[in-house]
Design goal:
Elements lengths: L3 E6 L4 E5 L7 E12 L4 E9 L1 E4 L7 E6 L2 E6 L6 E3 L13 H10 L4 E5 L2 E5 L2 E2 L4 E5 L3 E5 L8 E2 L11 E2 L2 E2 L2 E2 L3 E4 L2 E7 L2 E3 L24 E4 L2 E6 L2 E3 L6 E4 L2 E6 L2 E3 L16 E6 L2 E4 L4 E3 L15 E7 L2 E4 L2 E6 L6 E12 L3 E6 L7 E13 L3 E6 L11 H4 L12 E15 L2 E6 L6 E13 L20 E6 L1 E9 L4
Parallel strand pairs: 8-9, 9-12, 10-13, 11-18, 12-19, 13-20, 18-21, 19-22, 20-23, 21-24, 22-25, 23-26, 25-27, 26-28, 27-30, 28-31, 29-32, 30-33, 31-33, 32-34, 33-35, 34-36, 35-37, 36-38, 37-39, 38-40, 39-41
Antiparallel strand pairs: 1-2, 2-5, 3-4, 3-6, 6-7, 14-17, 15-16
Length: 497
C-alpha cells in the first residue's frame, strides 16, 4: 500500500490517506505535515492523529505539495466554473425557513460550479441538487432541517418513468424527501468543514419509527438516488430522522473524513447505507449512531414487481471508527439483489452490539459472498462475527415457515451465504460470543474461513442471545457457535480483560 495517497480532490478541498503500518482510523503516532502552494508559500501546517487528513480552504485550479515524515504528495485542485454564494440570494441565519432562497441558489450554480455555504446556521427544508456541481461548506457553516413535516415534499415510490425514488427498507414506498437530495445526478460533491443537521431531534420524527405521516415514511438526511461519480468529504452529518446517508442505486461513490453522529436512543438512525450500489469507497469515517453504523443493502423481494432489485458490488470500507451502534458493518437483511465483493480493513469497532453482522431469512433469496475482513480491532463488542439466516424481521418473521429448523424447499427465494473470510482480527472484551453462525438446514453457510482471530472476554459480561432468531439460547464467553455452517479455522483465546 502507498503510504500517502489522494482519496478525493475538489475545487477547494483535498482528502489524503496516510496509511503507515498499524494505522486504523487513528495513526500509530501523530504525524506533522506542511502544505505549500506551487508558488512555494506555506498554506497550512500542523499535526494529524487520524489516518485521513482533510485539507480545506484551498483555491480552485491550483497546484499544491504536501510534505510529511511519511512522504510527499503533489496534487492539483479541480477547476471551478463559477461560485454562487448563498448570501447573494438572501439566505439569512435569522430566517425561519431559507428553503426557497437556497434552492434558487442551487439552481443558479453553473455546470462545474460551486455553491458556497458561508458560516452560520441556515434553517431549511429539503433541497435538491443537480449534476456537475459542488456544495462547499466553509468552517462554521450549517444546514439545519426544519422539524415540522407538514409542508415537507414527499418522494413518490416511482417517478414518471417508473424509476424508484421513494423507498423504505428495501421496497418502493412513499417517503419524505431528505434534507439533501440528488436524484439521477452525476458529478456531485458535498465537502468542507461544515455540518448537515437532519433535524431528527426537532419535531416528532423519532416517535413514529415504523409508521407513516401523510402516507409517507421518515426521511433520510442525505439521499442519493441513481447517481454516479459522487464525493462526500470532511462534513459532520447528524441528527437524522432515519437512515443518515442513503446512496440508492449509485455508482462510483467516495465518502471520506466524515463524522456521522446520532443519539444512541434514536430509532433506525443507521449511519451510511449503500443500497444496490457499485464501486463504493468509505474511508476514515467516524460513526456514533442509534442503529447500525454501516448497513449494506440490496433491496427486498416482495413477491410482486421486483425491478427495484439490484446488487451491491465492490465496496471497500477502510480506516473507519464505529462506536456504539447495533452493528459496526452489517450486510442485510434487505439483500435480495445480492451483496458481493465487500472488503473491510484497517478499522476499529468500539462498543457495538456486533462487529461484522450478516442477516437474512427465508423468502429473501439473493447471495452474500466474497466478503473479506482484515486487520480490524474490536473492543467491548457483544458478538464479534454474527451471521443469521433466521432473522425474525417482517410480520411473519417468527412464523414456523421462517423459524423452523426443518429443511424447507430450495428455490429462488432461498438466501445463500458463502465465502466469508476473517483474518488478523483482535476482539477484546467480547461479551457473548466470538463467532455465532446460524445457517439454513436447506442452504448451510459455506466457505467461512477464520484465520488469525485473537479473542479475550469481558469478565463482567452478562448472558444474552447472540442472534435475533427464535430458539436461540442465551450465552456468555463462547468461542465459535456454528449450526448449519461450514467453518474452517478458529480463534485464539487471550486472557480475560
Amino acid at each position: 500500500m502507498t503510504v500517502l495517497s489522494l482519496i478525493a480532490v475538489t475545487p477547494r478541498t483535498a482528502t489524503v490517506l496516510l496509511a503507515p503500518s498499524g494505522a486504523k482510523y487513528a495513526l500509530p503516532e501523530p504525524v506533522g505535515f506542511i502544505l505549500k502552494s506551487a508558488a512555494g508559500g506555506t498554506v497550512s501546517s500542523g499535526r494529524t492523529e487520524r489516518a485521513v487528513l482533510q485539507l480545506n480552504d484551498l483555491l480552485p485550479g491550483t497546484d499544491y505539495a504536501l510534505s510529511s515524515a511519511l512522504g510527499n504528495l503533489a496534487f492539483r485542485t479541480r477547476d471551478c466554473a463559477g461560485t454562487v454564494d448563498t448570501w447573494d440570494f438572501g439566505a439569512d441565519p435569522a430566517a425561519a425557513d431559507n428553503s426557497a432562497l437556497l434552492q434558487a441558489a442551487i439552481n443558479a450554480v453553473p455546470e462545474g460550479g460551486t455553491l458556497l455555504i458561508p458560516a452560520g446556521r441556515f434553517v431549511t427544508g429539503p433541497l435538491f441538487l443537480h449534476s456537475s456541481m459542488t456544495v462547499h461548506f466553509t468552517e462554521g457553516a450549517e444546514l439545519a432541517a426544519i422539524g415540522d413535516w407538514r409542508d415537507w415534499p414527499i418522494l413518490t415510490d416511482r417517478d414518471g418513468g417508473g424509476r424508484v425514488v421513494g423507498t423504505w427498507e428495501g421496497l418502493p414506498e412513499r417517503s419524505f424527501a431528505a434534507l439533501i437530495n440528488a436524484i439521477g445526478c452525476s458529478d456531485v460533491t458535498l465537502t468542507g468543514g461544515g455540518i448537515i443537521d437532519g433535524g431528527g431531534d426537532r419535531g416528532d420524527w423519532w416517535s413514529w419509527p415504523k409508521e407513516t405521516r401523510r402516507d409517507a415514511r421518515r426521511p433520510r438526511t442525505v439521499f442519493l438516488a441513481h447517481c454516479k461519480d459522487v464525493v462526500m468529504t470532511g462534513l459532520t452529518i447528524r441528527n437524522s430522522p432515519s437512515w443518515t446517508v442513503h446512496p440508492f442505486h449509485c455508482r462510483n461513490l467516495t465518502a471520506a473524513a466524515l463524522k456521522i453522529e446520532n443519539p444512541p436512543d434514536s430509532p433506525n438512525t443507521d449511519g451510511l447505507n449503500p443500497e444496490s450500489c457499485m464501486d463504493t469507497r468509505l474511508t476514515g469515517i467516524h460513526f456514533s449512531v442509534g442503529d447500525d453504523c454501516i448497513a449494506v443493502k440490496a433491496g427486498k423481494r416482495n413477491g410482486a414487481c421486483e425491478d427495484h432489485l439490484a446488487p451491491t458490488k465492490n465496496l471497500v470500507i477502510s480506516h473507519c471508527l464505529m462506536e456504539r451502534g447495533h452493528g459496526a458493518v452489517v450486510l442485510g437483511s434487505e439483500m435480495s439483489g445480492g451483496i458481493t465483493g465487500v472488503t473491510i480493513e484497517h478499522c476499529r469497532f468500539v462498543g457495538t452490539d456486533r462487529g461484522l453482522r450478516i442477516k437474512t431469512r427465508r423468502g429473501r433469496g439473493g447471495m452474500v459472498g466474497n466478503i473479506a475482513m482484515n486487520d480490524v480491532e474490536m473492543d467491548r463488542v457483544a458478538t464479534a462475527f454474527a451471521a443469521n439466516a433466521f432473522y425474525f424481521c417482517d410480520p411473519d418473521g417468527k412464523s414456523d415457515a421462517v423459524q423452523s429448523r426443518d429443511p424447507a424447499p430450495v428455490d429462488e427465494t432461498t438466501p445463500r451465504i458463502a465465502d466469508i473470510r476473517l483474518s488478523n482480527i483482535t476482539a477484546s472484551n467480547v461479551q457473548l460470543a466470538a463467532v455465532a453462525l446460524l445457517g439454513l438446514p436447506e442452504a448451510p453457510f459455506t466457505a467461512i474461513r477464520i484465520d488469525g482471530m485473537r479473542v479475550s472476554f469481558d469478565p463482567d459480561a452478562r448472558a444474552d442471545v447472540p442472534l435475533m432468531a427464535c430458539h436461540v439460547p442465551a450465552c456468555r464467553h463462547e468461542g465459535v457457535l456454528a449450526q448449519f455452517a461450514e467453518v474452517v479455522g478458529g480463534i485464539t483465546l487471550a486472557p480475560e480483560g
